[in-house]
Amino acid sequence: MSNPSAIMLSLAGRVALVTGGGGGIGSAVASALLKAGAAAFSIDRADRPGPPGVSSIACDVSRSAEVASAVADVVGRAGRLDVVVHCAGITRDAVVAKMSDADWHEVIATNLDSAFYLLRSVAPALRQAGGGAVVLVSSINAERGKVGQANYAASKAGMNAMAMTAARELGRFGIRVNVVAPGWIDTPMTAAVPEEYRQRALDETVVGRLGQPEDVAGAVLFLCSDLGRHVTGQVLRVDGGQLIGH
Fold first, then answer.
1. Which residues are the active-site residues?
2. Which is nearest to 62 in space by CA: 181, 142, 164, 155?
């Protein structure tokens, strides 16, 4: 007998686009969507291809025209678009008093401006498909702030607000928009952070372990699948209780 939950988690016949598919979280998300049956595309820098089985398109997500072109490429090749996940993001840490204009603008452009360009570009294709799911990957630091991350926290907080607004605007077209907000996730990006900060994040959790990219991918898959069909405008923390344990 077939498993009803497994059927509702299936993305067979759907087309998924993941930004930042060459990164730690993005790669795990793209792989999970592919495994669930979706035809998966990654848009990322040319030197960061997506995982095996995922079609890669070179794109600087901080540039409006490149995002629009990449989305058009996906729709042109696949014929439709059903699932969109925004994982692309960077950090350029410094305390406010010492943060340069360049570090502020680069993070806002890569993390937040890109989310706007993406939502604007995919909305028509999702409407044409009769609906779909969008997930923006944010951070618990959008809610609590973080020393040295004014630019990053601001970009993610803006992303949360944008998602709620888009959920209101697009819901009548059958398009759901949600946010996944990870805490510390072990990725190549966090591997460069001093061990003391990693230990502090571990101490903040209530489950006694740090997150893996697959933990975020599982939450994304739920929100993109029919199991999450009545969920929109929400921020789902995937942090092992790090925020409440803080």
1. 152
2. 155
